[in-house]
Every structure is written in structure tokens, then in C-alpha cells.
Write a structure and sequence with these properties.
alpha/beta; Rossmann fold; UDP-galactose 4-epimerase, domain 1
């Protein structure tokens, strides 16, 4: 069997490539390396079952050749993070919407057997209900969330109209080795680990009582594999643990001095997936507890040695547009 993983040099994508190769598939990892890193796949160089293709997923001609004769397509390529999406909405639309449509159409024309889309739980915005089911109202708060939701809408539409066998997985707060170590201020694990390795205080937003459904990358990869092996189509499924952890607890597990910074506007106090549906439909359940996952990250902490070391001042500067557009208060530093 053959599989394509778009975003294959990225955080989740590279772990998925590893897993698919381990299952005996021939894998084409597609990435334009705008955010993915070639070193995430360096350990697979020379492996006859893996081929890397540097390409933009919005390039229809390049995609046609890539997906020809492929059984499974996993579409993870795209741009992430809140602030850059506010600053560059058209770039996010091109990558996350136009790119998704191009991959869908290439997959349809090639007659692939399964198409699995990496959606985002950010589509729920600030939910009314916890744990949050797939039927909850969709309220994307910023362009990244909107573009990921639009990509999902196209994927489900291609399933309904063209019969493309699609499963969309709404991912909650994924963490683990190889998560991004550079670029825009964003994921809390990368921020904390870089601060810890450089003996700086961990910057906790607000009072740290907000909680997140942190989901270890190996569990997420198993969800992708379960979706590909299934015979369901047109399904939208949450992927999380259902067991949120406070940011204060995360800081305690990582260890170190804590410094509190202003709360950010229009962020949920809690994310918590209702995973009843994915358990029923795919038989998937998470296995990695937060304590185990953080222990693994601390073993790989040296990977964050060259990552940006954020301070309250640089965070305020990086998130100024966030406060400007999403908040009712003046941005810090103004």
C-alpha cells in the first residue's frame, strides 16, 4: 500500500510517517518546508519505503503526480498559530483552504481509498458545553481557526458530493517531541521548555487555572491510522483525552519558577474533548497520561536549546495584534 502525508516534515506529520513506515506502507512525505523541518525525517534517509517531495500543496500540477496510485492521503499541511493568522489572513486562506481543496481534488481524481483531514478543535471557539461534542456550535475566533474549519467543510463536501471517503479529525492541543521550536509565539510546551532549559521563569498566562486537553502525539497518530483503516466516510471526530490539565499543573510537571502575564482576550478557559463518538466509531482511545508525556518531553528537552526564549516583554510585543483585534482593551505596551 501507498500513502501520502502532506505536512510530512512537520511535527505530527513526521510521527505519522514513522508509524506508516512501521506498518509496511510506502510513504510520500510532502512538505514545502515553510514550517516543517527536514531534520524531522533525517532518520529515514536511505529508507526505500519513504520518499520526500518538496512541494506546495496548493500547486495542483505537483499534487497530481504525487497522489497518482496512492491508497491513503493524510492531509496535515497548513499554517498554524493565532497571531500570524491575524497578521496574514490571505496567506492562511491560501495554505489552509486553497491547499486543502487542491489536495481533495487531486485525491478525488486519483481515486484514493481514504482521505483523512487534520482539523482543529479551535473551530469551537469558546464552547458552551464541556466536554465539547462534535455537535457543538462552531465559533472560530481568528483566521487560523476559520480557515481550518473551511478546509473541513470542503473535505466533508467532497465526501458528500463526490463520494470521496473522508474522515475529519478535530485535534485538541497536541504535544510531544518534534513540536515546533521556532517561529511565532504559540504552543505552551515549546515556550515552557525553552524557558526551562535556559533557566528562565515559565510565563503563565492569567492565573494559570485555565485548562487544556493536552493530547500526546503518539495517540493522535493512532487516531489517524484508525481512521484510515475504517470504512466510515463523512465523519467528523474529536481527538483528545477528555481529561483537561491546568496550565499551573503543567508548569509544576515541567518544573521551575513561574511568572504570570496578562490574560489574552477571547481564549477559552478550558478545552475538553467529548471523545465518546471516536470511541464508538473507530474504537480509538488515548493511552498516554500527561505525566508520562511530559516525562518524554523532558528527556528530549535539548531539542529546544536553540528555540526562542520568550519573556513577558517579547510576548507582549508578539501578541500586540492579538490584543488589538480580539480584545476590547488596549494592547500591552501601548
Amino acid at each position: 500500500m501507498k500513502a501520502v502525508v502532506t505536512g510530512g516534515a512537520g511535527f505530527i506529520g513526521s510521527h505519522l510517517v514513522d508509524r506508516l513506515v512501521g506498518e509496511g506502507l510506502d510513504v510520500l512525505a510532502v512538505d514545502d518546508l515553510s514550517t516543517g523541518r527536514a531534520e524531522n525525517l533525517a532518520h529515514l534517509r536511505g529508507n526505500p519505503h519513504v520518499r520526500f517531495v518538496q512541494a506546495d500543496v496548493a500547486d495542483e500540477d505537483a499534487l497530481a503526480a504525487v497522489v497518482d496510485g496512492v491508497d491513503w492521503v493524510f492531509h496535515l499541511a497548513g499554517l498554524a498559530d493565532i497571531v500570524p493568522s491575524i497578521e496574514r489572513p490571505l496567506a492562511y486562506h491560501r495554505a489552509n483552504v486553497d491547499g486543502t481543496v487542491a489536495v481533495l481534488e487531486a485525491a478525488r481524481r486519483a481515486g484514493v481509498r481514504r482521505f483523512v483531514y487534520a482539523a482543529s478543535s479551535s473551530c469551537y471557539g469558546i464552547p458552551d458545553e464541556y466536554p465539547t461534542p462534535e455537535s457543538a456550535p462552531l465559533r472560530p475566533e481568528y483566521p487560523y481557526a476559520l480557515t481550518k474549519l473551511l478546509g473541513e467543510a470542503y473535505a466533508i463536501h467532497w465526501a458528500r458530493v463526490y463520494g470521496l471517503p473522508v474522515v475529519s479529525l478535530r485535534l485538541f492541543n497536541v504535544y510531544g517531541p518534534r513540536s515546533r521550536t521556532s517561529g511565532a509565539y504559540g504552543a505552551v510546551f515549546g515556550v515552557f521548555l525553552a524557558q526551562k532549559i535556559h533557566h528562565r521563569p515559565l510565563t503563565v498566562v492569567g492565573d494559570g487555572s485555565q485548562s487544556r486537553d493536552f493530547t500526546f502525539v503518539s495517540d493522535v497518530v493512532e487516531a489517524f491510522l484508525a481512521a484510515a483503516r475504517s470504512d466510515v466516510s463523512g465523519e467528523i471526530l474529536n481527538v483528545g483525552t477528555g481529561q483537561p490539565v491546568t496550565v499551573n499543573r503543567l508548569a509544576e510537571l515541567i518544573g521551575g519558577e513561574v511568572e504570570y502575564i496578562p490574560k489574552r482576550p477571547r481564549e477559552p478557559e478550558r478545552t475538553q474533548a467529548d471523545i465518546g463518538r471516536i470511541r464508538r466509531v473507530l474504537g480509538w482511545t488515548p493511552k498516554v497520561a500527561i505525566e508520562e508525556g511530559v516525562a518524554v518531553l523532558l528527556q528530549h528537552m535539548d531539542a529546544w536549546r536553540d528555540a526562542p526564549v520568550w519573556t513577558p516583554e517579547t510576548i507582549a510585543s508578539a501578541t500586540r495584534e492579538w490584543f488589538r483585534f480580539l480584545g476590547k482593551v488596549e494592547a500591552p505596551g501601548r
